[in-house]
Amino acid sequence: MSRTMPAGVRTAYAAEMTAARTAPDPADRWRHLERAHILSQPWPWPHTRNHVAMFGLALRLCDRREALGQVLRIIVAAPGSALGRYPEGNTGRANVPLTRPMPLPDDLAAVLAG
Description:
With 114 residues, the chain is an all-alpha fold. 67% of the residues lie in helices and 0% in strands. The mean pLDDT is 96.
């Protein structure tokens, strides 16, 4: 995997992160953050940035379990991405095991395939 996020992935990632910040419904915010997470996994900084955003949303929603889960994920995100050891398709939430691969949504698989 390239050290630099390809332009198409970067555009899709930015769109998901923007949607996560602007969606009025918390469930929609989480959905956009999960999609951004899937896109960001191969790249250390965006992957970590995504978990920081998830942590922030968990704090705003007073979700202690999610916030604690995100602290752990913030710690392991960059090393996991840098080493290529991340579970493809994993949504990044605390309700999903750290190492569980998940099916990629078709539209995101197409973006990642370039």
